[in-house]
Amino acid sequence: MNTVSTMAENLIGSEIIKLAGEINEKIKQGQSIYNFTIGDFDPRVFPLPEELENEIVQAYRQGHTNYPPANGMLELRNAVVDWNQKMYGLSYDKEQILISGGSRPLIYAIYNTILDAGEKVLYPVPSWNNNHYTHLNHGQRLEVEATPENNFMPTAAQLEPHLTEAALVALCSPLNPTGTIFTEAALKEICALILAENKKREGKRKPLYLLYDQVYGALLFNNEKHYTPVELYPEMKAYTIFVDGISKAFAATGVRVGWAFGPSNVIDKMKAILSHIGAWSPKAEQVATAHYLMKHDYADFLNHFKTEIYARLTALYDGFKALKAEGFALDVIQPQAAIYLTVRFDLVGKKIKGTGQQLNDMKAVSAYLLEKASLAIVPFYAFGAPADSPWFRVSVGTCKKEEIPEVFELLRKALLELE
Ligand SMILES: Cc1ncc(COP(=O)(O)O)c(C=O)c1O
To answer: Would the CB of 245 count as within 6 Å of ligand 1?
Structure first.
């Protein structure tokens, strides 16, 4: 017998947070670990923009401590109109924008607004938390497994057979956990299918909506470009709900300012749901973010920030490539965006020399890398990929450049101890 709702009873905690907890416990016990597990920033390595910090302090001093409007401060929604235009060439009215305490409540509200109990959400694995949001909203999962040949981005061919059954498609680019992005052609093909499906539904069924999570959209490297459904097909405006915010773009995960924008019928309901939950972004943070985006040169911050992230990603990429060239059983995907690198370790079945002990599964491989190389990274099964997927996410938000050579020295030693 359940003592709480069936939904709550069956809720699984985030695998990533669980893993991070285990690692922090080891660190507390004095073990030195290269903790590349969390999709967050160490403020000592990647601090907030100084002007944003000052604006926050000032906003509190000016007394912005009461309730903000339910859809967010007007000045912040105006700043988001400007951000959308400058960053992505997207034109949205301030009334089609909803501010919240980071992006998470908005994702929850999109699911909650679109889905009736038992309806299906189509998304790729690996991906970030779609399984949990589906469960929380009494939906059913329709998962397609993305492959390394496509940089782990889902393809139109994979999604097409499932579109008729789905109520919501959830896509993310740049993708957490892979640090890869949609090509223009790939996203265009998917949007064409969604539009065709909606033509069929016209007047008969609820439309098929697309959640498009672009919280890493400001963090692209090497002249890579972020594409959006709406710039590729303006008709997608009626079906696309975007998720964005400052958490990743400005190393501001603890500040809690996020926004969604999309068709008014959806955004207005999301506003009503989130105002009952009270998931507003604090008023002072909203005012400060508005001032920061409108009065300060955030392009300067972003250039520096991206250079620093990319330096770490490329140093790690080169290190893994070098080990591969030496003949070690691993592979790595070229980083394109976000703060992540995708690495493969083919170590299941290997034995630890002189012990007879064998690495039987991916849990054992992760544990071996942690014990012997002090390297903490997240296996893709934590993002819904199959339990035997040999791929991992490496996050550089806490990575100090000077520790990278040590990481590879230890890793090489650990790999040499396997046969
Ligand atoms: C893809 C993606 N979307 C949304 C979020 C949530 O961001 P926030 O901290 O703004 O809630 C994250 C955080 O890790 C993420 O990786």
So the answer is: yes
